[in-house]
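Hi support team,

I submitted a single chain yesterday and got back a structure, but I'm not sure I'm reading the token output correctly. Could someone confirm the output below corresponds to the sequence I sent? I've pasted both exactly as they appear in my results page.

Thanks,
R.
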Amino acid sequence: MLPDSYLTIGQPAEVETKVQRSRFIALAGPASDEKSARLFIQEVRKRFHDARHVCHGWHLGLAPDTLENRNDDGEPSGTAGEPILVAIRRSGLTNIVVAVVRYFGGIKLGTGGLARAYGGAADMVLEAAVVQEILLGREFNLHFPYPRRKTVQHLLDQHRGRAIDEQYGADIEWRIWLPHSTWEGFAKALTEATAGELSIQDVNEPGI
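Hi R., thanks for writing in. Yes, this is the structure output for that exact sequence:
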């Protein structure tokens, strides 16, 4: 069963921090697929073309079909990409890519210091980003007479659905949205409440 929603970010975010004179610039962006994630990284590399390291991590999709990627970009193995990815996992966000640019300040941080710096920068940009909830579900067409409007609205509210398009003529025609977890319950309740008079029709299928 697919979830009813997921959390991502609505727009890019950027923060900068310094650790032992090294500059760490963290950038986060929404990414709907691997292509858009790679394009984001490409744009960051182009913008910060003089940086020694541009490390990244991304997390795409919904469980169990998630896709992750990490890259240390020349830093010691496991000190950059993995801490960035761990920060993304900890945030609970998906369809997101985070890049952390480093300008070396002349002082070596060691593997532990690097991991903390990259992970900390990723945490900072994720905290600064505007989180957006994306609702998931299905859309249906529903045709009903005016006396049934109160019943339909009550059942929609009960099952966390809503009308997304309303047409009023001789009868009422609504396009409705329902979460994945409740649409079957709504369909059953609607049939029972109207003694089989009303049923929903999936917008992408001939009927239910």
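A quick pointer for reading it: Residues 110-128 form the longest helix (19 residues). Let us know if anything else looks off.

Best,
Support desk
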